[in-house]
Specification:
mainly alpha
């Protein structure tokens, strides 16, 4: 699969923001995984731009972090 620069940028923004919101809440990947019903290694791969995450998973993470989905892309 070929990833264009615009897609890669969006994924990088999401990864950075996810990490920052999680760290601000002093939340481990394990705890976020529990709250979002996602595996901690999945969260790690998203934070490290190794995963093309689904909108459903983004929604779960936003709910677990108690933020609007848009904040993950701001």
């Amino acid at each position: 699969m070929v990833t264009n620069k615009k897609t890669a940028r969006a994924r990088a923004v999401l990864a950075k923001n996810l990490f920052q919101f999680r760290e601000e809440r002093k939340m481990t990947q394990e705890r976020l995984g529990e709250l979002a019903d996602l595996h901690p290694t999945y969260i790690s791969s998203v934070e490290n731009c190794r995963r093309n995450i689904s909108i459903d998973a983004i929604e779960k993470l936003a709910k677990a972090l108690k933020i609007p989905i848009a904040d993950l892309f701001a």
